[in-house]
Amino acid sequence: MTTPDFHVTADLVGADIASGVMAGALRHPDKPALLFGDRCLSFSQLAVRIQQVAAMARDELHLGPGDCAAIYAPNCLAYIEIVAGLSRAGVMVATPTHRAARQELRHILNNCRAKVVFCPDDLAGNLAGLVSADIRSLDTGYEEALARQSLANPVPPADPEATFCIPYTSGTTGEPKGVMLSHHCRSHLFKAMAHHFRCLGPDDQHLCFAPLAHGGGYGFAMASVFNGGTLELLEAFDPAHVLSRLASGDVTSVFMVPTHIHQILALPDELLARRDGFRLNGIVVNAAPFAHALKQRAVSYFGEGVIHECYGCTEVGIATALAPELYEDKTGSVGPAIIGTEIAVRREDRSPADAGEIGDVWIKSPTLFNGFCNNEAATTEALDGEWLLTGDMGAMDDDDFLAIMDRRKDMVISGGINIYPREVEEVLMQHESVAEAAVVGIPDAQWGERLAAVIVPRPGRQASPDEIMAHCRDYLGGYKVPREITFRDELPRNPAGKVMKRTIRDELSKA
Length: 511
Hints:
Elements: H1 18-27, E1 32-36, E2 39-42, H2 43-60, E3 68-71, H3 77-88, E4 92-94, H4 102-112, E5 116-119, H5 121-124, E6 134-137, H6 142-147, E7 163-166, E8 181-182, H7 183-197, E9 205-208, H8 215-226, E10 230-233, H9 239-246, E11 253-256, H10 258-265, H11 269-272, E12 282-285, H12 292-302, E13 307-313, E14 317-322, E15 342-346, E16 359-364, H13 376-382, E17 383-384, E18 387-396, E19 402-407, E20 412-414, E21 417-419, H14 421-429, E22 434-444, E23 448-457, H15 465-473, E24 484-487, H16 501-510
């Protein structure tokens, strides 16, 4: 791979996402910015490739501000440079997951009105008949297309308030919505993440295996590069390989969802014993409820002072951060608001809730999205001025630390009483035979809804439904004890690692 005769200059560093790479190329041009398999791109090389993508968008694809393109691919070397490069040219970049069902993919590409879709050859067939967009292969002709771009007239920084990417919500409760994120909101967030997590700076090597198609995966990956760190990118999550990379001594930080931690801790003892090489200064956990019992096991294994917990959503990114040293003092909390962000808990009439009172979680932040793509009704429903209604239920303590109870749509009303499944799941996870648990409400002729639990047993252990119910009665009022217990090998999850409770609810309701 040859690098064109092109040098980053100060006037190419602005306030857009690509500028983080450009600034890195000025400060330490030869430092590794991106590792993928046996390939390594320095900051200078990555900056050049981002400029080549931007020039291709402008001069060859004839795309510009207001246009949309998409990348439909698993994690790969080109992913970072395509999103950053296209957006530098003012192009909005939609990021549908490569695991999307055909109808879901049709909805996403039609919703964002993509004019060009970049994808590997083995996924191109999935696009046939879905859209009239120009399909560009990442396997054939991509490198040649970059090489023929002239960089004599570099693409300047994009408008910081313009949309740079459009990740789509997971669709756990309905049709996916495109979340339009601006350069400004994410550059602000990336700086705040480096401040709060203390593991995304120039001296860090961040390991990323979460899907770049989702807000969390791309956010942590790009935050690393944006702040001058080295990003090691994996195509997918394999617990044994991830553990080997963590134990190599190269990796200092990683973003995980609780499922990743569960799968690592379930590895054979001989693999788990290989942790002498850990050089971790930050494991950030987000995107799904982190049961206290699992967190205790994680702290015991990875060490104290390492695990950060946070809360957020695609529309704002990270909103709270709980430092590792507070995890025992603030059990069940996801922390206070990060710099520049405000959190409020409100009753249904939107009046402020008292400390400890459960209500709707609202967020006001400079990281707020630009709205849902071509969906004004959903945008209006989600916003109250500068405040976002998250759809989560939570409570604030006297120190303004937030605890998340559940998604409002997952709350169960049985006999007129509100029940928050997450509280029940926490108790289930305390049982020595339970590895994972999901609790949902299913229709009941007498009570309206009744609680049902799906449990993944720990390897080599199995408890009866009666034993599980007896355990719950020791910690919960009778109305919170699941009436049905089902055992499964795994819980259904979407590519972001979130449990698909709607799927569980539908399956149990039909049984």
